[in-house]
Amino acid sequence: GYTPLSTVVVDMNATDVDSASIVYSIDSSAVFSVDPRTGSVQLSRALDYEQIVMYNLTVTATDADRLPVLNSSAQLIVHVTDVNDVAPMFLQTVYSVNVSESVNLTSVLTSVIATDRDSGLNGMIQYSIASGNIGNRFDVDQFGKVFVIGRLDYESR
Question: Can you tell me the distance from the alpha carbon of 43 to that of 5, in angstroms, rounded to the nearest whole number?
């Protein structure tokens, strides 16, 4: 599912033998923030895999009670995982085909095409005929090919 805002992504931990006070900061990320006292990096904005799949951040630890002020930085790479949050979309909203009632069974009438911006299994599309298939005379396969599986009769439609 979705990761709630304020979820701690990682606890960054720095040590300094000559300083009791370490202050943490994060580079200009609007999506993540860091608690300056604890180093806990948390989510500040919603993630969207379809927009950004990875964040490359820099967290800096600074000794705040000594002069000269010294710091150290660490790279933090956050990989976003996809959730099934995008509905499939057909390339056309209407598919129309004329068919003779004498068409052979298993004849392919047309192909429908849908795409899904989700990744992996979340982007897999399964086709089915949702309505209007009176008498179950048509079927659609996993590739979107629509074909005849029952005799057609113009007079009985």
Answer: 5
Rounded Cα distance, 44 and 20, in Å: 28
CB 70 within 8 Å of CB 61: no
| Pairing mode of beta strands 114-115, 71-79 | unpaired
List phi, psi (to 5°) of 8. Answer: -75, 120
List pLDDT tens digits, range 41-66: 999 999 999 999 999 999 999 998 77
Give the pLDDT confidence of 139-153 residue by residue, as tens digits. 999 999 999 999 998
CA quadruple 142, 145, 148, 154: dihedral positive or negative?
positive
pTM: 0.71
